């Protein structure tokens, strides 16, 4: 099984050593990390709903420290909130990369036609509504929303589905490696989508993933206000651009 945390540290080590954290902003729906150079990255705040009180249970204060220190915390802290912060920081590091705005070609790139079946890890309601209009059937598996059964879902993925979408929150809850292991022989289009998506093709080397869809912050102050006032995806996207990459 691929260790994606080790791969993240290897990929981003050099860039992380050259940058410093300014502020960490943890909201109800999203987390943002702002760097000293002004770049801002976001990630979904994945709370542990099994606990009555969820906190960022980290002793170290990573503000004003090297991004490399925060990056390496992946080796020490495994809870979702800690991972959310690291992924937001990584997404801040990628803001200087050349990324194309989403051209709206997802369905074409997934090669979906009338009568096809899409498998979806994580429930993307807007995509579901659009595909129903195109008469594409959907089978979803979402742990948080208690949708679907794992065994029957992966049997469907590997035997019947025409394409697969994976939520980027799987990088936060540390299930991405397990998902990839279950679909290692999959040869149909696979996309990783969501604001938490790390837009770096090297991370997905050796996997079936071929499409990335994420978020690039265009208005830092707007995003930070949305986060500190507990807003969700629609408000975040008022101050961001959807970015897209075929890898």
Question: What is the typical, i.e. mean, pLDDT?
Answer: 93
Number of strands: 10
Class by SSE composition: alpha/beta
Strand order of the largest sheet: 4-10-9-8-7-5-6
Distance between the termini: 21 Å
Shape verdict: globular
SSE order, as H and E?
Answer: HEEEHHEHEHEHEHEEHHE
Q: How large is the share of residues in beta strands?
A: 15-25%
Largest sheet: 7 strands, mixed
Instruction: Indicate the low-confidence ranges by residue numbers.
Output: none
Describe this structure in words.
The structure is a single chain. With 247 residues, the chain is α/β, with parallel strands linked by helices. It has 9 helices and 10 strands. Strands 4-10-9-8-7-5-6 form a 7-stranded mixed sheet, with helices on both faces. It has a 3-stranded antiparallel sheet with strand order 1-2-3, sandwiched between helices. Strand 2 and strand 3 form a beta hairpin. The model has no long low-confidence stretch (mean pLDDT 93).
Please write out the topology.
Elements: H1 4-17, E1 21-26, E2 30-35, E3 40-44, H2 67-72, H3 80-93, E4 100-101, H4 106-109, E5 117-121, H5 125-133, E6 137-141, H6 150-159, E7 163-167, H7 176-182, E8 190-193, E9 211-217, H8 220-228, H9 233-236, E10 240-246
Parallel strand pairs: 5-6, 5-7, 7-8, 8-9
Antiparallel strand pairs: 1-2, 2-3, 4-10, 9-10
